[in-house]
User: Fold these one by one.
Assistant:
Number 1:
Amino acid sequence: MAGTLLFNALREAIDEEMARDSHVCVFGEDVGQYGGSYKVTKDLYEKYGELRVLDTPIAENSFTGMAVGAAMTGLRPIVEGMNMGFLLLAFNQISNNMGMLRYTSGGNFTIPTVVRGPGGVGRQLGAEHSQRLEAYFHAVPGIKIVACSTPTNAKGLMKAAIRDNNPVLFFEHVLLYNLSEELPKGDYVCALDQADLVSEGKDLTIITYSRMRHHCIKAVQLLKDEGIDAELIDLISLKPFDMETITRSIKKTHRVIVVEECMKTGGIGAELIALITEKCFDELDARPVRLSSQDIPTPYNGNLENLTIIQPHQIVDMSQKIVRQGL
Amino acid sequence: MSKGTAMASKQTANKPSETGEHAERLSNLVSNVPADIDHETGLKLFRDMTLGRRFEDKCAEMYYRGKMFGFVHLYNGQEAVSSGVIGAMKLKHDWFCSTYRDHVHALSAGVPAREVMSELFGKETGCSKGRGGSMHLFSKEHHLLGGYAFIGEGIPVALGAAFTSRYKRDALGDSKSDSVTAAFFGDGTCNNGQFFECLNMAQLWKLPILFVVENNKWAIGMAHDRATSDPEIWRKADAFGMKGEEVDGMDVLSVRGAAERAIKRARAGEGPTLLECLTYRYRGHSLADPDELRAEQEKEFWAKRDPLKTLEKDLLEKQLVNIEELREIEKQIDEEVKDAVEFALESKEPDPTELTKYIWAD
C-alpha cells in the first residue's frame, strides 16, 4: 500500500487549497523554481505561476510584512520560513502586525496568513538551525500556533490553517518530513484547536507535541510491558491549549507528564503545567512533571545533541517513578 | 557618492544657528514641475491642509488639558506632503500607509475628523474603536492600512497592498485592478533595513507603490546629516534602478506634481517611485519632546515657508480663488474641529465587557 510522505501531505494540502481559492499564494525563499528547501511546494510554481508561488529575496522581516499587507487587502498568503529559525528575523512583523493588528485596528482588518516551515532539533545541524521557536512566539497575542506530527494531521491541519481567518504559525519538524502514512481519501480538514488522543490509558497522562509524539509512542509501548497503562495526548494546538481534552484525561489518570522538545525555561510545558495546576489541582495525585530539552543552544556533536533533548527511556523512567512511587 | 568627503565633519555635532544643507537643497532642486490645478482643486487642497493644521493645533490643546494621553506626534509644517500626495490619489481605491505621525494622513484619506478625534480620546467611536490610539489609526473603509509605530514596519505592509494590486491584475486577470499604494515615512526610516529591502522588491516586481519620504531633517534628536552617509535620499533610488525625485515638501503644488507623475507610472505598470519631500515639523517630535536641539535660526527659516501661506499666496496670485473663499473655509474647518471634539467628548468609552473583542477573527 503506497503511503504519502509528510512533506508531500503538506504539498497536497497547499496544492488543493490553491486550486480551491485563487487568493491563496506562497511567499518565501526558494519556494518557486527550487520547490522549497524540503520540497513542500515542489512543482506548484509551474502549476500556479510566479506571482502565486513567489520566490522572494532573502529579506524575512520584509516579505513577512508584505504578507501582512497582502492579507489586509484580500489575499491569503502562506509564508515559508526556509528554516523556522530564520523567522527570528521576522519577529517584529509576526508579533506587532500579524498578531496584534486585528485588535489594534479595532477589527478593521483581518490577517489570514499561515507562517510555516521546518523547525525543531534536526540531526547535527548546529544551534541556529535547531531552534525551538514555539515558546518564543507563545506569548504573542492574536496568533494560533499549531504543530503537526503525522502525514494525516499535517495535511488536514494545513488545509484548516489556510482557511482560518487568523494568522497561524504552523510548525513542521525537520525529522518528520519522511514519515509515511496512507492518507484519508478526499477533502478533509483537522480542527486547529483540538488535541489528538493518541492512545487511551488509566495510570497516567503523557502530553506532548510534534516529534516527541513518536518518542512518547515508544515509551507508552515499553511502559505497557512494565504493566503501566499510559494515556497519550498530542497537543496539536500549542495556542490555545485544548484544556477540555487535557482536563478530561487528568480527571481519569490523576498523574501528568509533559514531554517537549523546547527548552524548559519559559517553555510550552511551563505554561501548560501552570494551567493544569490552576484547573486540575485537586485531581492530581502526584506532582506534574516536565521533561524538556536542556536550556542550552543545541550542540553540534551527536552525543551532546542527544543529551540535550528528551529520549524515550527518560519518559519511561519518569513515568515509572510517578506511578510507582507517587512522586 | 559625492557627499562622502564631508562625512567626518557632519558626524561631529548638531550644528546650531545654521539653516544648513537641508534648507540649501530647496534652492538647488534638480527639477521642479508643480501641478497645474483648477479652482476646485485649489480649494480642496487649501481645505485639506487647513483641516490638518487646525486639527493638530486642537490636539495639542486637548493633550495639555489632559483629554488625550500617550505619545502624540503632530504634523504641523508637513501638510503639503499629505495633501499633495493623497490629494492626487483616488480615495477608497488607492491605499495609504502611515507612521506614528498619522492623524493628518488619515484626514486626507477621508477618515472623518470625528472618528480620528474620538480615537485620540480612546473612545468606542474612534476609527480603531479606542484600541489603537494616536499611533494606530486604521480605516478599512478609507483604505488606511494604518499608523505603524515602529520605524520602517509599515513599508512592507504597504508593499503587500501594492502586491495585491498587481496580483489581482496579473494572477487573477482583473484588468481593472490599478490601485496604487502610498507609504509615508521619515528620513530616520531611510537608514533601516526594511526601507532598502522593500525598495528592492518593489522595483524587482514593478509594484505600484510610492515611497514618500517626509524628510523633516530630524529623527527626534538625531539630525539627518549625522545619521546617513548620503543625505540625498532620493538618489538612493538609483541603486535599485528606480525612479527617484526630490521635491519642495513645503509647496503642495510641487508635491502634487511629483505625485501625479509617480502615480501615472505606477498605474501604467511602470513600477515604484522614491519621492523625497524636503519638509520640516513645526513642533517637537512628540508633545513630550522638549525640542532642545533645533536652532532658532533653522526654525525661522522653515517658518517663513509655511505651506499653508505658500498655497494661499499661489492661489491668489493665479487668481484661482478669492480671499473670502479661503476665510470661509477656515471658518468651516474650525466648526468641523469643534464638532469633532464635542463628538469625542460625548462618545462612550469602550465597553469593559468587550476587552478581548477583536483579538480573533471568526
Number 2:
Amino acid sequence: MEVKKLYLSLILLTFTFVGFAQQKISLNLNQVTAEELFRQIEQQSGYTIYCNPADMDSLLFSVQCVDELAPQALAKAFEGTAFQVSVYEGKQQLFVLKERSLVTSISDDYFYQRKELERGSSDYYLLNPMEQKATSENKVYTIGDETATTLPDKVQLTGVISDFRTGEPIVGAVIYEETTMAGATTDAYGYYSLSLPSGRQRLLIRGLGLKDTQRQVQLYGNGKLDIELEEEVYSLKEVTVTSERLARVQSTALGVERMQIKDIKNIPTAFGEMDVIKVVMMLPGVKSVGEASSGFNVRGGSTDQNLILYNNGTIYNPTHLFGFFSAFNPDLVKEIELYKSSIPSKYGGRISSVLEINAREGNKKEFTGQVSIGLLTSRVTLEGPIGEKTSFILGGRTTYSDWILGMLPEDSGYKDGKAGFYDLNAILDHKFSDKDNLYISGYYSNDRFRFDSDERYGYTNANASAKWRHIYNNRLTSTMTGGYDHYSYHTETRENPSDAYKLKFGINQVYGKFDFTSYITDKHTLDFGLNSTLYMLSPGTYTPNSDSSLVARDQIQDERALETSVYLADRWEITPKLSIDLGVRYTMFNALGPRTYTLYDPNQLPDETNGISTEEAGDWKSFKTYHAPEFRLSARYAFSSDFSIKAGANTLRQYIHKISNTTVMSPTDTWKLSDANIKPQKGLQVAAGIYKNFLDNTIETSIEGYYKTMEDYLDYRSGAQLIMNHHIETDVISTTGRAYGVELMLKKTQGKLNGWISYAYSKTQLRQDDPRVDDPINNGDWYNADYDKPHEFKFAGNYKFTQRYSLSMNCDYSTGRPITVPTSKYQYAGGEYVYYSERNQYRIPDFFRMDLSFNIEPSHHLTLLTHSMISIGVYNLTGRKNAYSVYYVAEGGRLKGYKMAIFGSPIPYVSYNIKF
Amino acid sequence: MKKKLIYWIVFLAIAISCISPYEPQGIESTEGLLVVEATLLAPYGTEVKLSRTISLNDMTYEPVSGEVKILSDDGVAYRLTETEKGTYTLEQEFVYRENVKYALDMILDGKHYRSEYVEPLRTPEVDALTWKYNEKYEQVDIMVTVSNPDVDVAYYQWKFKENWEVRAPNFGTHRWDPDARRVITNELDTPNNRYYCWAKDSSRHFILGSSEKFISTTIKDKVINEIAYGGSRLSNLYHISVKQYELDGEAYSYFRNLQNNVETTGSIFAPQPTEMKGNINNLDNPKETVIGFFVATTEITIEMYIEANEVPEMQVRGSDCLEVLKDFKGPQDAYDQGYGILTYGIGAPPEYMLMRCVDCTRRGGTKKKPEWWPNDHQ
C-alpha cells in the first residue's frame, strides 16, 4: 500500500506503452558482485537499476545469457534468491527488492469498476454512469471489453451527441475519424452510429454553432459513447464549422435545404417578425405568387403539392393573416428541411416537396423563457425540466394588429374591423431510458377576421402527435408516431338578414407511422416502415345565419379515405466515393363510403347531363382503390470530400387535391380526396447537380438542374362554381404540367459576412390535352402556369460588425408572374365590359424588393439574468410598388386600369426580444 | 357573397399598399369581335344591339349593320327593323306560341350567325320594390322582392332607369346670361329659371340574382341600386323604374361571368378571369368568338318615387352653400370666377354664391322635364 502511494506521483498514465524500444544483452559473469552485475547490465541495455545496496553487498552472482532482455537477465541472476526484480518500462528502470515486488502501475480496477457480461456478446458494456457523457477531450475512453482476447477488425460505436448546457440533442453534427474518413452525421435525435477499426482512435466532432472538439477512444468492441458539446459562444475568431457543408457534399440527397433556427433569425422580414415560411421562400427554387400569398410553389409545383409537416402533423394552411405571418412560432422551431427533389421514401402523398419543421425539446438543465415584442405580434415561450428525465416547452403567440386597421380611412367602411390570430404550442419530452424516448407535441392556431360587423371569417389548425423512439441495439432503431390533424375554416355574413349565411369546411386526419432504421452493415443502411392515414373531410356546409334568413341548408357529403404505404429504402455505399439511395414506396388509397356518387359517360367530360348511373357505397366500404409503387432513386459520386456530383429520379403520387380558381391560396379554397371520378395526381422528377465547396469548406456552391412532369393536375373550367358544388367533378379538368429549370447557389456560412446568393431559371407550363374538352385553354397548347417566373435572383446576407451589431439585407428579384389581361372592350347592358386574352399570356411588371435590418444585442454577459435583442429595419427599402395584379374595373360604366401592390412603400419596424 | 369578401380584403391592402392607375403595354388587341346584345320580349320591347370590340385605347364604338331576324323552330321568321345604326327592334306585337322555341338569326358582312333555339321564359311580377336608409354606409338602398312559383330555381336580371328632379340649394333671383351679356330674372312659374332641373341615368351593369342557395324561389330585399350620399338624386324628388327579366341558368352564368370579369379581378383572391362561350355561333366557322347570349323572356316593370323629405338624413349638410359673398365688380366678374347671383336689386348690393349653389344646371341637371313628371315645377 505504501509503495503504491509512494510511486503515485510517478504515474501519469494508466496505460502501459508496449512497444518501447528494448535492448537485448548478453552476459557471461562468474562470481561477480552486485555492483559489477548491475554495471554490465546498465551499460549494455541503458536501463538504470535501483536497489538497496546494504542488502546485497555480500552477494556474488553468476549468470550466463545470450541476447536476453535486461529484466529477464537480471531476474536470472537473482533466481533462487529472496530478491525480486520489478520493471518500470516507461522509465527503463529496474528495481531489485528483497522479498517484495514493486508495483509500477496502478491496478486496472483503480478508476472504475466494470460489470462483466458474458463473453462473446456483441452488446456493449456499461460504463460507470459518471462516465456516460464524454466531456473531456483528453481522456481516453475505453469502449468494449478490455480483457477480451481477440480484437475485432471493426467496431460499431453509437451514442447521442447533446448540448452541454441544455441537454438537447444536436442534429447534424459530424463525428469522424480523420485517417480513414469514416464518419457519421447525427440524426434528428442526436444519435449516430459509426463503424471504426478497433484500437486507439481519435474522433473529431464538428457541429454548427458548437466548439469543434475531439474525443479519444480505445475500442475493444462495440460500445456506446454519448458526447456533450459546448456551444461556441462569443468567440471572435473564425470558427471552422464544416458539418453542414460536408453534409451537403457528402449526402446522396439532391435538392435538400436544411436550415437551423440561427440562420432564420437574422433574415429581415415584414414588421420584424421572424418567419419560417418567408425564409423558405428565399431559397432557390421556391416561389410564391406574390407577397400576400399563403402558399408557395416549389420547382413548378402548385401550392397544394407541398407536404408541410410540423412535428409530424400535416398543416394545411401554413400562415396567419393571409400570408403575412407564418403559423410557426420561431422560438420553438429547431430546424427546417425542405426536400425539393429527392424526397425520402418515408414521405409521400404530395408530388412536389416536403417541408419538415421540427420543434425543439425543452431545456433539460434549467428553467428559461423568452418574450418577444414586435410591432404587430408578441410571443412568450417557457421551458424547463420536470424531474431528471423530462422537459417541456410552452409557447404562445398573438397579434394586436387591430391598430393597423384603425388607420384605415373612415370612408372605407372598415375602420372598425378586427383581424387577429393566436397560436399555442406545448411539447413534452420524456426519456424513459437510453433506449426509449417519448416526444409529445400539441399545436393549436386560430385566425379570425371581422371587417365591418358583417363578414366574419376564421380558420383553425390543430395538431397533436406522440412519438416513441426505441433503440433496439446499436444497429436498429425505430420511431413510432401517432397523431391527429385538424383544419377548418368558416365564413359568415349577417348584414342582410334575408341572405345571411354561414359556410364551413373541415378536414380531419388520424395517422400512424412505424419507421425503422437499420444499420445492417457499414455499407448498407436500411430505412423501412409503414404509414397509414385516415382522412375525414367535410367539403362544405352552408346554413342560414339568422332567423329570417331564406338560405336553404345545404351540405356536401363527407368524404373518407384511407391511405396506407409501405416503404423500403437502402442507402448503399458501394465505394467510399460512390453511394446510392434506392427506395420503393407502395401506396394503396381507398376511398371509403358512405357515399352516393355518379358515374359519367367516359367519352365526354363529366357534366350534369351525361351521368349514366348513380352508385351508393356503404359505411366504411371501399368504393374506389388506387394503388401503385413510387420509386425514389438518387446517387452521389464524391470526387473528393468537397466535390461531388449527384443525380436522382423520383416518382410520386398525390391523393388529396386543392380545388381553387384563384391564383393564391384563398381562404375559401376547398380540398377534395380522390374518388371514382377524380384520379390521383402523378409526378415524376429527374434532377442532377454538381456540388463543390471552396476555401476549406467555407464557401459552398451548387448547380442543380431538374425536369418534372405532372399528370392529372386538377384545373377548373370556365365559369366553374367551386364552392358548395355537389358534383365538383363536372367543373374540373385534368391537366398535364411540365417544369424544368436550373438553380445556382453560392453560400457562405462563416465569417463576418455570411448568407447566400442564388439565381434560378425555370419554366412551368400546363396544358389541357384531354381530347374531350371542346374549347381547351390556349387551343390545347402549353400555357404558362400562374407562378411561372423564369428569372429569379435572391440574396440574403448578414454582416457582423462585432458580436453585438449586425446588419442583414435581402434582395429578391424575379420576372413578373403571368396574368390574363383584357385585350379589348365592348358595350353591353349600358356599361363597358372587357374581353380577356388566353390565360396567362402576359406578365405583370418585374418584382424587386430589398429589405434591410440592423440587429443589436445590448449585452453579452453570460451571467446576466436576461438577454435582449433589438431589431430595427425597413421592409421594401426602395419602396417599389411591386404589382401584385393588373386589372380593369368598371366605374360608372367606364373601364379603368389599375395596378395593385401589396406593400407599396417602405415599411419601417422595430422589434424587441428578451430571453431570461 | 363572394364580392363582399373580396372587397374587404382589397381595402385591407389599401392601408399599406397602393392601387395606382396602370395601362399594360404591349397588349395584342382582339378588336373586331362581334358583340350581340339580344333580348326577345313579348309583347313589345325586343331589341338587338350589334357592335364590335375595340382596342382598350380607343374611345368610340362602331355599331354593326346587317340583316337581323328572329326564327321560330316551327319555321316562322320575323324581320327586325334597324331603328338606329346597329339597333334593331321588332315593330309589331309579338306573342310566344305554345311549345315553340326561338333563335336569333343574322347575316352580317356576308357571314351567317345563328343562336341556339331557346325556350321563352315567363317573368313573374315583382312582389315589392322598396327602399331603406342604410345608416352604416349612409346611402339609400333600393330593394326588390320577388318569387316565382313556376320554376325550381329562379334567375333574375334587373335593369333600371332613374329620373330625378335637381333643385339648387338656393333660389337665385337673377342670373347672368353670358351670351346676351345681361342679367336675367329667374321666374319660378316658367322654365326660365335655374332652380328646378331634371337629370336621368340608367343601370350600367348586370344586376343579377339567383335563388340557388335559398329554400324557395323567393329573393327578398335584393339591393339593386344604391343612392350614395352627396349626390343630387334626393334633392327633391326621385323616380326609379325597374324592369325585371327571368333568365335560365346558362344565361345567368354567362352574364355573371361577364360581370365578375370587371368587378372582382383586382383583389388578392380574385379568381382567374375566363371567357365563357355564349350561345350565338357563326354557322360557317363555329370557332369564331361571338360575345353575347340570346335570351327570350318577358319584361315586368315596376316603379316608385322617393321624396326628399322622406329621407332627411340624405340631405347634403355642412356644405359651403351658406357662404354669401358680395365683393365682386359686377355679375360678369362674379360669373367669370364661378359665382352666381343670389339676390340682385336696387337698394342693396348684389349677393353672390358659388354657381352650383344657385344653378341646378351646374349640378348635372338640364331643363328637360319628363312629360309625366308629377308636379308643376318648371
